[in-house]
Amino acid sequence: MSEYHTPVLLNESISALITDRSGIYADATYGGGGHTAEILSRLDDKGKVIAFDRDPDAAANRIDDSRLTLIRNNFRFIHNYILFEGHTGGIDGILADLGVSSHQFDTPERGFSFRYEAPLDMRMNPDAELTAADVVNGYEEEALEKIFRVYGEVDNSRKVAALICSARSSSRINTTGELDKAIESITPSFAAHKYLAKIYQALRIEVNQEMRSLEKFLEGAAASLKPGGRLAVITYHSLEDRMVKNFIRSGNVEGTIKKDMYGNAEVPFRAINRKPVLPREEEIASNTRARSAKLRVAEKTEAAI
Length: 305
Prior knowledge:
single chain, alpha/beta, 13% strand, 12 helices, 7-stranded mixed beta sheet
């Protein structure tokens, strides 16, 4: 389990999540099963966990526990499955760790990392049609620029898009090495790792429609929790953290607070921690991928029903 992915903010997230040892909880991002294992360890015989992961490799980490139901699908459909499993009255808590698993980064053929020469793939669900190569070679220059600017927060996104379009005009860009070479002239030598990480993040988000899936997940989580139920979300970059923060504050990812006819704000959650919980120095030292993690926790309000 640890070889697949080291769970981030493990104790902090599970301690905030569980309010009832006999409750029903969802791990929306199963991965290596680390968070699920910790949830199960804190539940009694009546407690249950419903876990989600669209990556078939996650099934190899299935925990042998009758209290666990593992569903291979995108967490954006969480509410449908919660209802399908018969929990029409809502469940007690939902956890989501939005980071890409270490296994996905460290499996070269998945194409998630610029550290390996590999096909430009980046699909979390290998059965999905769109690959990173499709995006790089098929999107218009303006669309590419927007992806790098919005999803990667790349400063010179226009130049990146132009270089890619120029390179692909002579031959298709199929591998990580070919992509890196296409933008080599503007990749700063002193910060190549950080720069390329932004490029690859942007492409991964587009390929997997992560922002749209996150929005649908948050809406589904709000509908799936019972009053007093907890939502715990671990984010890794500013775009997704902003969406989670806005949703907790206002009930939508834009952050627009809607009011009823009496002027009362209609919000589904109450924030448990006003500032995000950050990993301790010891955790970052042992797991560098935890360094950008932020945990936000909220409680479903009675007013949301």
